[in-house]
């Protein structure tokens, strides 16, 4: 199910976006929820969601797989242990197959594992089986990174798997539910003309590893 609460809203920064998303999520029913921020930009948004739901916070990592020779053009994504996810239409348009990208995929998988080790600092991952699991990011554009992360989380057997972001492209948002990647998708804003995620923030500076580590350490202490 899609839960949308606004039209074409913009946000001051990730803290503002997280607070507004948390307000919407706090009014919904949850069963033993756990919140995962999609690193890196999703973590400062997820902090506010975890606080509002009084839920533990963990981190998820998905790495972009770029088109050959075009490092900024993401056509897929992969997590530490889940299956890779590709934009099939883009692959076909470029005349590529997953086998063509196998080496890139394994390199990005290794980097995802390295980042998870760094972010968790020796902590075990949160148990997810039988719980409501919310994957939070700062926005949803093509959806390929979210799909990769959701695919890995689905294997942990949550009772309900939810994707939440302050702003989502409508087509990608609807596809997550239609394809069964998420049981529910929650967003504050889903503008008709989307563009890039950063265009809906007045301040969209890069989130650092240090900010991710600080947020996770603080929630672990509390």
How would you explain this protein's 3D organization?
With 222 residues, the chain is an alpha/beta fold. The protein has helices at 14-26, 42-53, 88-94, 102-120, 144-154, 170-178, 209-221, and strands spanning 2-4, 34-38, 57-60, 62-67, 70-79, 85-86, 132-136, 160-167, 184-189. A six-stranded parallel β-sheet has the order 1-9-8-7-2-3, with helices on both faces. A three-stranded antiparallel β-sheet has the order 4-5-6. Helix 1 runs parallel beside helix 2.
Short description:
By secondary structure, this protein is α/β, with parallel strands linked by helices. The chain contains seven helices and nine strands.
Keywords:
Rossmann fold, PRTase-like, transferase, Phosphoribosyltransferase family protein, 222 residues, 3-stranded antiparallel β-sheet, glycosyltransferase activity, PRTase_dom, alpha/beta, 7 helices, globular
Mean pLDDT: 93
Radius of gyration: 16 Å
Span between N and C termini? Answer: 32 Å
* H/I helix tally: 7
- Order the strands across the largest sheet as they lie in space: 1-9-8-7-2-3
Name the CATH class of the domain at 2-61 and 127-221: Alpha Beta
């Amino acid at each position: 199910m899609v839960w949308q609460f606004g039209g074409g809203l913009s946000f001051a920064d990730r803290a503002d976006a997280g607070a507004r998303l948390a307000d919407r999520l706090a009014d919904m029913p949850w069963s033993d929820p756990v919140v995962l921020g999609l690193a890196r930009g999703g973590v400062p948004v997820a902090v506010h969601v975890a606080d509002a739901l009084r839920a533990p916070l963990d981190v998820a990592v998905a790495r972009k797989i770029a088109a050959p020779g075009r490092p900024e053009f993401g056509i897929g994504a992969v997590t530490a242990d889940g299956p890779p996810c590709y934009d099939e239409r883009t692959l076909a348009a470029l005349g590529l197959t997953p086998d063509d990208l196998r080496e890139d995929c394994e390199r990005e998988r290794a980097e995802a594992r390295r980042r998870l080790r760094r972010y968790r600092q020796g902590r075990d991952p949160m148990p997810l089986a039988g719980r409501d699991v919310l994957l939070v990011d700062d926005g949803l554009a093509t959806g390929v990174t979210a799909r990769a992360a959701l695919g890995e989380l689905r294997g942990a057997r949550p009772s309900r798997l939810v994707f939440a972001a302050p702003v989502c492209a409508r087509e990608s948002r609807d596809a997550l539910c239609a394809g069964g990647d998420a049981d529910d998708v929650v967003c504050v804003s889903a503008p008709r003309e989307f563009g890039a995620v950063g265009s809906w923030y007045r301040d969209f500076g890069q989130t650092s590893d240090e900010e991710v580590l600080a947020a996770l350490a603080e929630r672990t202490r509390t």
